[in-house]
Structure formats: C-alpha cells, structure tokens
C-alpha cells in the first residue's frame, strides 16, 4: 500500500488509469442509459417514469459512495499522515456533491408523477439533503484550508464526523416510516425485475468507473497545483 | 500516553475510539428520533394512541381491497387504510393520484374527526420496492407470483 502512496509512482499509474476509467465509464454508463431510456418496457404502475431509475440509483449510490471515500481517505490521512489521502478526499468531494444533487433532482422529478409531490420531509429525502449540505461545507472548508494554509486535519475530521450521516441515509427507510420505498436491492435479493435490473447494474458500474476517473483527474490537478506553487516559491526566493 | 506504541498506532486507536463514540451517539440520537422522525402513523399506532381530533397528522398504510367507494357527489371518495392489524376509515374530496389503487400504499395528510374517520386534505401514493414491466400485468395471478418469486430468489 505504501508503494502506491509515493506521488511519483501514483502519477505514473494515474496517467493511463484516468483515461481508461473515464472512457470505459462513459461507454458503460452511456450504453446503460440508452438501454434504460429507450429500450426497456414501461413499468406496470409507473409507466415511462421508471426510466429515471437508471440515473437516480447510480447517482444516489455515488453520492453516498463519494462521502464514504472522503471518510476512508480522511482516516488514512489522520492516522498515517499521507498527503495523497488528503488529495483523494478533496478529489472525491466535487463529483460526490454533483451526484448527490443529480440524485435529489431526479428523485424530485420522479416523485411528482409517482407520489404526487415534488418533495416531502421524510427521513430518506431529508438525510440526503443533509448530505448535499455536508458536501458544500466540506468543499468550502477544504478550499479555505488549502488557500489560507491551515491544517489539512481540519477537513479530514469534518469528513470523518460527517460519515455518521451515511448509515442514517441507508437505514432511514427502515427505522422510520417514510414515503420513500425501502431498498429494492439487498444482499443477494432484488425486487426489481431482471428487465430493469441488468441495465441498472451496468449503469451503476459505468458511473462508478466514471467517478473513479474524475477523482484521479482531480487528484492530478491538485498535485500539479501544489508543484507549480512550490516551483514559483523557489523561483521567487532564488 | 500509552508507552511502547508507535505514534501512528496511537493515532489509529484514538481515531477508532472517537469513531465508535460518534457512531454510538448517532445511533442513540436516531433511535430517540424514532417516533418524531417518522413521516406518518400506521393504523395500529393510530388505534393505540389516537391523536387529538383536529390535530394535523399523516396516516400511511395499504388501501384495503374492495373498500374504495365514490360518494354521490362524485368527488368525495371513501376507503379503508389498514396495516394488517388495524384499519382506519378515510374520507377524501379531490383528485386521486395516478398510482392510487386498491391494494397499494398511500399516505394521507389530514386529521381525525370526532367519529374516528380520517379526513384527508391530500393523498400521496406510496410506491413499493417492486419494479415489474408492464407485460407481466397481463399474466395470470399464478404466473405473476412465479415471476416475482424467481426475481426474489435469483436477484
């Protein structure tokens, strides 16, 4: 593990891995969305509204996955003090926030025809909105720290504390009566017919690859920024 | 602090202790919120601890088969919401949501009247976790159950 933590070796691997992840992610996600939007039959109750599923579910998964990545990177950073872990957490924040926003918007569009309302303050929807605010707070904090030279431990602690929201989102439909339906896909079981399930799983896989590619690209940008700054500082001194 | 430990192991232990405390606090808070954070009451809860008549509450459950009736004025519907144990009669005047059918889930916003009937101002259709294509609807009940059973086992 420490072998990959060397920034130079990381850059060597990240250079080709970024392209690979982005291209394969785009192909898979694009293909699955085309399949879901144009080829699957309508749902027995919801009709064509079911197609939003193929964007909504991957977005929800990555919104939560993004914060899990922030939390794990933060833990690694706090314990082993490796700077690449802090960069990984920052890299996951922006795509995580965007996927959370996509999840909320598509969910709202789906809710209007299905439930009869754009928004309700039930456990699932509220905790997901809290996640969006956590992302916004994390990004602002991480930027302020990197601009004003504070300790990177501050956003890392925030990332760890915020992780408490992830099991709450996951369990919100079990603990509390909510308008949002409970999980359709649980360990080894699915209440989604295979006609919908296969393109859905491909979409989840594709968007996950895309997410990984975006994180790597963001980390390379942040590393390049740090190097430029260091070089400029040396020039100014010499 | 703890002797004989490398600093990074000390940090690991500290962070893990902090995490356990945090998760414990979160779970305690969530379980304390159990009743307040619920979006609606189910009929059993409403039967055990009925809210004061006139107090705005939400009622959620399944629309009982065969209970849906339209009154003579054409806009008022009555039906019974149940959860398998208790039932509550509901009255609603207005347009029903598209997904509102007997046997499906519903969340009604409104209040109990003095006679124990729930007067709804607004109905929300609750979708369950099952997603089935439209072709399956044309099948017989037996075929449908078979397909659902296969889906549930096969994943």
UniProtKB/TrEMBL annotation, chain A:
Keywords on record: Cell inner membrane, Cell membrane, Cytochrome c-type biogenesis, Membrane, Transmembrane, Transmembrane helix, Transport
GO biological process, one term: cytochrome complex assembly
Positions of transmembrane segments: 58-80, 92-111, 123-142, 154-176, 196-217
Coiled coil: none
Domain Cytochrome c assembly protein: 16-180
Localization annotation: Cell inner membrane; Membrane
Major subcellular location class: membrane
InterPro entries: Cyt_c_assembly, Cyt_c_biogenesis_CcmC, Cyt_c_biogenesis_CcsA/CcmC
Organism domain of life: Bacteria
Gene Ontology cellular-component terms listed: plasma membrane
Molecular functions (GO terms): heme binding; heme transmembrane transporter activity
Residues annotated as signal peptide: none
Membrane topology annotation: Multi-pass membrane protein
Family in the record: Belongs to the CcmC/CycZ/HelC family.
PANTHER family assigned to the protein according to its UniProt record, in alphabetical order: CYTOCHROME B_B6 PROTEIN-RELATED, HEME EXPORTER PROTEIN C
Function, as annotated: Required for the export of heme to the periplasm for the biogenesis of c-type cytochromes.
Protein name per its UniProtKB record: Heme exporter protein C
Gene that produces this protein: ccmC
From TrEMBL, chain B:
Protein name listed in UniProt: Cytochrome c-type biogenesis protein CcmE
Residue spans crossing the bilayer: 12-33
Compartment(s) of residence: Cell membrane; Membrane
Family matches, as Pfam families: CcmE
Keywords: Cell membrane, Cytochrome c-type biogenesis, Heme, Iron, Membrane, Metal-binding, Signal-anchor, Transmembrane, Transmembrane helix
Family: Belongs to the CcmE/CycJ family.
Record GO cellular component, one term: plasma membrane
Cytoplasmic side: 1-11
Side Extracellular, residues: 33-155
HAMAP family recorded: CcmE (MF_01959)
Coiled-coil intervals, chain numbering: none
Function per UniProt: Heme chaperone required for the biogenesis of c-type cytochromes. Transiently binds heme delivered by CcmC and transfers the heme to apo-cytochromes in a process facilitated by CcmF and CcmH.
Gene coding for it: ccmE
Topological type in the membrane: Single-pass type II membrane protein
Record-listed heme binding positions: 127, 131
UniProt GO BP: cytochrome complex assembly; protein-heme linkage
GO terms, molecular function: heme binding; metal ion binding
Main location: membrane
InterPro entries for the chain: CcmE (IPR004329), CcmE-like_sf (IPR036127), NA-bd_OB-fold (IPR012340)
